[in-house]
Amino acid sequence: MVDWSGGNDTGSAPRKDAIWACVAREGEAEAPVYLRNRDLAETWLAELIADELAAGRRLCLGFDFPFGYPAGFARALTGRADPLAVWAWMAEHLEDSPAGNNRFDLAGQINRTLGDGPGPFWFNGLKREIDGLPRGLDGRVNPFAERRAAEAQASGTFTCWQMGGAGAVGGQVMTGLALLHRLRGRFPGQLAAWPFEPADRPVVLVETWPTLIDTVVRARTGPGDIRDAVQVSAVAGALSRLEPATLGRMLDVTAPEEGWILGLGHEAALMAAADPLAPPPLRNDCFALPAGVDWTPVDAALALLRDRLTPVTGPETLPLGAALGRVLAAPVTALRANPPQPNTAVDGYGFAGPAPDGPVRLPLCEGRSAAGAPFGGVVPAGQALRVLTGAALPEGVDTVVLDEDVSVGRGQVAFHGPLKRGANTRRAGEDVAEGEVILQPGRVLTPADLALIAAVGLGEVAVRRPLKVGVLSTGDEIVEPGAEAGPGQIFDANRVMLLSMLARFGVAPVDLGRVPDDRDALRERLDGAAGEVQAVLTSGGASAGDEDHVSALLREAGALQEWRIALKPGRPLALGLWQGVPVFGLPGNPVAAMVCTLIFARPALGLLAGRGWQEPWAIEVPAAFAKRKKPGRREYLRARLRDGRAEVFKSEGSGRISGLSWAEGLVELADGGREIRPGDPVRFLPFSAFGL
Ligand code: AMP
Ligand code: MG
Predict the structure, then answer these.
(1) Predicted confidence band at 156 (pLDDT cuts at 50, 70, 90)?
(2) 563, CA 20 to 30 Å: which among 347, 383, 411, 521?
């Protein structure tokens, strides 16, 4: 990415409004490069192109000036409606050196050639008059549009017709187009000029406009930073991080004469790629289990998820009213102390404390202080003022005596001491100090959190975007609830359950429907989902049998990790990344699907959503049942509390949905063997501990 400049040599010390360039590879921007003049920049660019071509890499070369003029200009100047003919014309006629260039004379020359009157170029920045180049807009004639179609859509651009004045880009365009023409000549056939030529050559020249990601640039520019340097780095990084499909859509533009700004109309995608908090992709091996282990203990599997999964949702800023339940993306710092100034905690009378032991009489001062209507004056020593709850303490008051403890009459207030200095008042900042960090990233915002944020002066917060999680049911036998079901068919119970569980987990459920046991249909559905959601839960087909198409498909794509967890209920889980999106292939049995979702998917989704690792809380209670448990697997029993004891469902059958509905939580039995008798302590995890 190059920030071009039409100005003269800017000296040896890096400074703004100079030429800046930045190379980004694979999403990482290198240090921005300061180029003091156009000669140096051209040499630097030619070397970069030569190096990249030699290394067999492709290069997307972005410049921040228009690649074309408004429609009609190319034909008027060169006789052909071809923007590349204008590039050649500029290269032929522009005289350029680090000390200066002939852009004003060239603008005058073009205006004279067009012969319609003084214009379209304007603004003579020189002392001498230039034939055909008006100093201002008075009397100027412009037979073309003032702006290109792209500029009409991009607010805040300068026109290519303006040759001088602060921010003008006329000279940048002329010197820039001449540069591009020469670079194309140095590497014949290697440089494609987008969008005039297809972007299929090793080097593609694109027009960019850093203002498209201005909020990111502003957020990243610290005191002492050079904005141009931050800009090139941000744009280069963003373009380099774009998904190929997204970049493809941005490049799919028809603008044969005027050119186009890359990313215009796709600002959200560009911003997401530019965002400094944009999360990195998950590691490819994030679900890999240690080799050689036959059955992985639940705790080992959980530790592995905890270790490998990272947040995948980017940030956005929301007003407080829209932020409930969202995950904080950045620490929240108090803009103002709470309370902001000392005030009274009660209705009463304020004075300078302390008050001595025994009867006290103070003359009343004229006026009062109420919340929102403070007393402007000073309360003289030895006097008291009427104060109402929440009112700022005026100068001369640091102590308040309660209404209930006084008698008032004849311009005086009387009460019995002693009263400590500061009694019945609130100190400024006694709750929260200004600048204090009140909430940490990862926090799920509660109503009280929103009150706290509001109280310290913020109207909006940076939160993570909701994690979108798709739910897909698989199986030839599955039909839609309420529909006609033939013999051998069963209603889809899992999908509505999983979607509802996700809603309770505070992520955004996305219904991906049902697919039969057909690999192509499943592949197509997952492909579609990968662009839309950030995680997928499937149910059914996750084992290693002939009809287990979820695991088969993931295996075929080289993405399957078959998890054989020492857990009951739950057969193997199929985990994998589908186009970078984690897929949790859950068992089809509703009981196993629910337990695996609670135990594995919920904490994993919490990490992906940025809220950190969540452990459900549990309580130890006496068992109301007897059971002999074999060693080797952790077990979860459908359970509920009655009279302080844990009852378990009459059957452990994994297809018994009625037991799930009967239960109010799970009893967790540790991996080892155990003989449980009524009254023995067991661990009970209420469903509410999982957020259900
Ligand atoms: P599978 O894991 O595909 O072998 O399925 C195990 C059992 O779960 C089978 O009896 C399926 O019919 C049942 N099953 C699979 N998907 C669902 C679903 N969405 N709703 C209810 N039961 C299901
Ligand atoms: Mg099945």
Answers:
(1) low
(2) 521
Residues 590 and 526 in one domain: yes
91-105: pLDDT as tens digits = 999 999 988 899 999
Across 189-203, 269-283, 311-325, 468-482, least confident range: 269-283
- 480 and 452 part of one domain: no
Which has the minimum average pLDDT: 50-64, 359-373, 544-558? 544-558
Binning the chain into helix, strand and coil, the percentages to the nearest 5 are 30, 25, 45
- Domain boundaries, position 444: 315-337+431-464
Expressed in angstroms and rounded, the spacing between residue 586 Cα and the centre of ligand 2 is 11
pTM of the model: 0.64
* 3-state secondary structure at position 303: helix
Q: What is the CATH number of the domain that holds 560?
A: 3.40.980.10
Closest CA to 370 of 385, 384, 383: 385
Please tell me whether residues 590 and 480 are part of one structural domain: yes
The string of pLDDT tens digits covering residues 397-444 is 999 999 999 999 999 999 999 999 999 999 999 999 998 999 999 999
Tell me the residue type at 379. V
Query: Is 478 near ligand 1, meaning CB less than 6 Å away?
Result: yes
Residue closest via CA to ligand 1's atom 5 equals 588
Residue 294 lies in a domain: no
Residues, beta carbon < 5 Å, ion ligand 2: 475, 540-541, 588
Do 382 and 438 share a domain, yes or no? no
Chosen domain end from 572, 587, 609: 609
Ligand 1 atom at minimum distance from 540 CA: 3
Residue 574 alpha carbon to ligand 1 centre in Å: 15
Same domain, 496 and 586: yes
Same structural domain for residues 483 and 498? yes
Q: Are residues 519 and 651 in the same domain?
A: no
| Six token digits for residue 366 | 């004229």
Whether 587 lines ligand 1, by a CB cut-off of 6 Å, is yes
pLDDT tier at 347, thresholds 50, 70, 90: very high
Cα–ligand 2 centroid distance for 478 (angstroms): 8
User: Considering the domain boundaries, does residue 187 fall inside one?
Assistant: no
Report pLDDT digits (tens) over 519-573.
999 999 999 898 789 999 999 988 888 888 898 988 887 778 888 889 999 877 8
pLDDT surpassing 90 at residue 146? yes
Continuous segment of H or E residues that includes residue 592: helix 590-596
Q: How many domains does the chain have?
A: 4
pLDDT above 80: residue 127: yes
**Is residue 157 situated within a structural domain?**
no
> Does ligand 1 lie within 6 Å of residue 597's CB atom?
no
Q: Alpha carbon 603 to chain centroid distance?
A: 21
CB atoms closer than 10 angstroms to residue 384? 28
Supply the pLDDT for residue 543: 85
Distance CA 384, CA 375 (A): 12
Nearest ligand to the CA of 495 is 1
Per the domain annotation, does 645 fall within a domain?
yes
What's the pLDDT score for residue 485?
93
DSSP states of 335-372: SS-BSSS-EESSSEEEESS-EEEEEEEEEEEEEEEBTT
Q: Are residues 559 and 649 in the same domain?
A: no
Q: Is 436 in the pocket of ligand 1 (CB under 6 A)?
A: no
Contact 559, 625 (CB under 8 A): no
Pocket probe for ligand 1: among 471, 478, 515, 522, the residue whose CB has the most ligand atoms within 8 Å is 478
